[in-house]
Hints:
Elements: E1 4-7, E2 13-17, E3 22-23, H1 30-40, E4 52-56, H2 62-74, E5 78-83, H3 90-93, H4 104-109, E6 116-119, E7 122-127, E8 140-145, H5 159-167, E9 169-177, H6 182-191, E10 194-199, E11 207-212
Amino acid sequence: MKRIIEQTADGSSTLFVPELNEHYHSVKGARTESQHIFIDMGLNASEAIEPRILEIGFGTGLNALLTLEAAEATLRKVHYTGIELYPLPWAMIEPLNYSNHPLFKTLHTIPWEEDAIITPRFTLKKIQADFTTFITENLFDIIYFDAFAPEKQPEMWSQELFDRLYVIMNPKGILTTYCAKGVVRRMLQTAGFTVERLPGPPGGKREILRARK
Length: 213
């Protein structure tokens, strides 16, 4: 699929997919959105001492980068698993200018399907797979649910998948997503989660969802 770089309102960039008429991030601010939804409302809200994180949709690696930065800033050890069916090459990521952090390129160039110790506090495993058929025996403390929108990728927003996510989470686990649609909230509740509507990122979506096991 073709992808076009577009600048967002906070100065950071995102990718636009004409075939889906969909952006990878909010046009109101890519970095602002990711920081608010996944770091502030997800990672920072977790009680896990050494959280294991699962990201559905590794994409541009922005969520992984922000998590790495948070782990280093808080001296908190994180194991991060990112699932992506269509990996993006570094040549497409570099022009987004997300960060001059020397390890950002490393996140994209390490081998897939194996644990890579990026820093003593951040281990990354990238898995190229279709999450609708993905099976794991691992348990996670935090899930970043960052698939394309339900109307663009409906197979990723099913009751069966949310049921499966509930099973692979540790007690007190947290799932965060930018999508606050009522149907998504009800599916999360049916799966067993306690769901909160939270304010969205500054200048962006009005509400987001956080689900707790």
